[in-house]
């Protein structure tokens, strides 16, 4: 699985992430919100073309699991041929749950009901995270378009064992095994 968050309408950033999807052989694209619009607090990103982003994602709609970000709206859904307005979704991995959310309502400071060993994957902060805390897993692929905190643009990858956050040069920024230590 390839995890991408906070595209904010940049076709340039999306294409770079999708090159990694192919390179890593990821079959599923998990989108953690803020897909098409840059939002009023953000600068207009390089390669800003929300319609092109929608068209590119529509071409792989059968491979996408998406959740709504704070910049996503019903108008965005009209352009996309896959559901993107769910506030959250769940993946079941080896009998444990991973909550998918954007992070602006439910997130690391406002967790959904998670059992020990479950986890949360979120975006919103644009900061890469892959770690276990107090028996729960936290994963944020960062932002492919507008990284924050001095980080580089990044995406996430799950190979069936390990969740990784990588930049477009392939450098590992964060990593944690899904198997608890």
TrEMBL record:
What's the source species for this entry?
Ferrimonas marina
Sequence similarity: Belongs to the metallophosphoesterase superfamily. YfcE family.
Q: What is its EC number?
A: 3.1.4.-
Give the cofactors, semicolon-separated: a divalent metal cation
Instruction: Mark the transmembrane ranges.
Output: none
SUPFAM superfamilies according to UniProt: Metallo-dependent phosphatases (SSF56300)
Question: Metal-binding among the record's keywords?
Answer: yes
According to UniProt, the name of this protein is Phosphoesterase
UniProt xrefs under Gene3D superfamilies: 3.60.21.10
Give the matching NCBIfam families: PRK09453.1, yfcE
Residue ranges of the Calcineurin-like phosphoesterase domain? 2-159
State if Transcription is listed as a keyword: no
Keyword vocabulary terms for this entry: Metal-binding
List the InterPro entries hit by this protein, alphabetically.
Calcineurin-like_PHP_lpxH (IPR024654), Metallo-depent_PP-like (IPR029052), MPP_YfcE (IPR041802), Phosphodiesterase_MJ0936/Vps29 (IPR000979)
